[in-house]
Every structure is written in structure tokens, then in C-alpha cells.
Amino acid sequence: MYVGGIYRELLPKAEYFSQALYTFDIGQNDITAGYFANMTTEQVVAFIPELMERLTSIIQNVHGFGGRNFWIHSTGPIGCLPYALIRRPDIAAVKDKVGCSVTYNKVAQLFNQRLKETVARLRKTYPDAAFTYVDVYAAKYKLISQASKLGFDDPLLTCCGHDAGPYNFDPKVGCGGKVLVKGKWVVLGKSCDDPGRRVSWDGVHFTEAANKFVFNQIVGGGLSDPPMPLRQACRSKGQ
């Protein structure tokens, strides 16, 4: 395919594709999509092998185009996210000491177990590539379970949302959401005063401060398999 004009300057050079680090952060949307479609836990779990096949196919395609370095994140503790707790209260009924759904998190952990096994198989299939499995779940759950100690407020309380229920989360009025009052649009989904002290931004995503904490936990390689710092993730081929 011919690429010219401004795109010739913007697109990376062909040789860069084999030098790049391809990051995959998967699982949260896949698991919640199943639950939000009213699947049972058994049905969601039964769907995990197909997700692993899809990931394998995608990585196969990237490898075919020259990709050789892969940084693959486990999914986080979905049972600690306000939107998941609200959307399926039946699944969220049994909670741990932090207030997170036991069932959601067990499924997330099972997903991660299968993901780690998939990464191990990919290493054998593509010995010329570097695959790093990153335990993002551990980093995120540490933040949530030790939020106060780490300088954060209630980890389940949404920063940008509508004051509804225990999580400041209303699925009908999200962050930036407006309602029509006497002919005028009024913003209900407003940011909290100090996002730097909150873990959850909008009930679905983490705040910048929370993401920074997670990054600092994983960048050194202590939660990686193999235990490789991010700056060396392109140098661990065949491990």
C-alpha cells in the first residue's frame, strides 16, 4: 500500500515495529460485558478459553508483522469497581473486608491464571519474542486494600460522578453528565475537590494518581514474570 504526503512523516519506520513494546491490558471489559449481558458466573468462566484464543490470534498477527516484544497485563480486581458493583448487585452481594465483590474478583483471578498459562505457551510458540506477564491485579488490590495508609480516601468512592448511593456513582448520570432543569442543562456529574486522593475516577477507570501508583508498582519488574524492569522488557527474548 502506498503511503505518501504527511503520513510518510508521521508513521513510524518499518524497522521500528520489531523494536516496539506491544502492551496488552485485557480482561475487565470482557468479564463485565458477560455479566452485564446477564450471564451467570459459570457462563462467564466458560467464555475465558475463547478470550485466550482471541488474544493468541491477535499476538500471532502482531508477530507476523514484526512485533517481538510483548508486555501483557493481568486484569485488575473488577469486584472493587463501583460500576460493576452497581450493575450486578447479585454478583456483588458477598464482599470481602475491603468491600469488593468476592465473586467478581475470583473470576478475575481465574482469568489471570489462564492468561499467565497462555503467555507461557506463547513463549514456546515464539522463542524469538519476549513476553512479560505483569501482575497488575496485585498492584491495584494493594492500593485498594491499603488506600488510607497510602494517602487515599475511600477507594470505592467515585471522584467524578453523581451523589447517588454509597459509591457516588449513578449509571444514568456519569462523569460530566447533565440533566435538563427548567429548560437549562445542569451538570450533575462533577469532579471531587481533590482527585489526587481518590482511587476511582468515574466508577470505571482509576484516577491519574491511582494509575501513577500502579505504574510505580510494576515498572521495576517486581510484579513481572520474568522479573524484568520495563526498560529491559525488550531484552528478555526466549524467557
Overview of the structural elements:
- Belongs to the 'GDSL' lipolytic enzyme family.
- GO terms for molecular function: hydrolase activity, acting on ester bonds.
- The structure is a single chain.
- The chain has 239 residues and is α/β, with parallel strands linked by helices.
- The chain has one domain.
- The chain contains 7 helices and 6 strands.
- The strands form 2 sheets. A 4-stranded mixed β-sheet has the order 1-2-3-6, with helices on one face.
- The protein is globular and about 60 Å long.
- The model has no long low-confidence stretch (mean pLDDT 92).
Brief overview:
This protein is an alpha/beta fold.
Characterize the overall form.
Answer: globular
Number of strands: 6
Largest sheet report: 4 strands, mixed
Which series of helices and strands comes N to C? HEHHEHHEHEEHE
Mean pLDDT: 92
Number of domain units: 1
Number of helices: 7
Rg from C-alpha positions?
20 Å
Structural class call reads alpha/beta
Beta fraction of the residues? Answer: 5-15%
* Strands side by side in the biggest sheet: 1-2-3-6
